[in-house]
Design a protein that fits this description.
The chain is α/β, with parallel strands linked by helices. A seven-stranded mixed sheet has the order 2-3-1-4-7-6-5, sandwiched between helices.
Length: 250
């Protein structure tokens, strides 16, 4: 069947995390780390910052970074859903930071939000436990970057983002790393008033993963650290959506 799984993520760092995750679960990179061109099932070149993978079962996966959560649903989502009758989808996955501090805050990109967008495109869509199914049986799911790590954990940013997941996994795997990162960040002269969760993540990269060519490279390669990867998988398994998505992509 000529079709693809289509993964929408916020930015390049999310794309790097997804790359490491997909390789970890057994997908392959047909570009050979970008050294050769790749075409999709419709014989079109995969380019423009898009990544391609082949699942263990042989299905084509396209990974697309859209440049921020506000672009996830307004542009690429609607465009790809509208095009599904011409270029078929096995399924569409949307991933984004929860971007909250507390459980009672509104998550901007969530399954109910995506379900509402799907309703505008396809009034006959149905919502089940972990995803939405369009009238032509195309499934859409949402994976949110967040973790149940205790609040105020040393070396872990407070805001629920991809960086919180990564830092939480590193601290869970290597408990001795959290305190020096926390102490170093606290010792900075004139730190930013509104610190980004990336301050913590960059600190771990500088301290233990600087051999990677870039921050993006480090975020992808962290999946090759089996101790950290094991914790990240456990975090993903806390979300019912992941179990469905994992089955799609393997």
């Amino acid at each position: 069947m000529t079709a693809e799984y289509y993964i929408l993520c916020e930015g390049y760092h999310d794309r790097a995390f997804w790359k490491g995750l997909l390789l970890h679960i057994g997908c392959t990179d047909p570009s050979n780390e970008g050294r050769q061109s790749v075409v999709d099932p419709w014989k079109k070149s995969v380019r423009g910052g898009q990544y391609a993978f082949i699942s263990p079962s042989g299905r084509f996966i396209r990974l697309v970074a859209v440049g921020g959560d506000r672009n996830l649903l307004h542009n690429q989502f609607r465009h790809r859903v509208d095009k599904r009758h011409i270029e078929k989808l096995y399924g569409l996955i949307v991933s984004a930071d929860a971007d909250v501090h507390n459980d009672d805050e509104l998550i901007r990109v969530s399954l109910p939000v995506v379900s509402q967008w799907a309703l505008e495109i396809d009034p006959s869509r149905a919502e089940i436990e972990s995803h939405v199914v369009l009238s032509d049986e195309t499934p859409i799911s949402v994976l949110t970057w967040m973790t149940n790590t205790a609040e105020n954990s040393l070396g872990v940013p407070a805001k629920q983002t991809l960086e919180r997941m990564v830092c939480s996994a590193i601290v869970a795997a290597y408990g001795e790393r959290g305190r020096p990162v926390e102490e170093w960040l606290a010792s900075r002269p004139n730190p930013p008033v509104h610190d980004s969760p990336k301050a913590h993540a960059f600190s771990y990269v500088a301290g233990w993963y600087a051999a990677s060519a870039s921050y993006e490279g480090a975020i992808a390669s962290i999946w090759r650290d089996q101790r950290v990867a094991k914790v990240l998988v456990q975090m993903l398994e806390d979300q019912p959506a992941w179990l469905t998505i994992r089955d799609w992509l393997t």
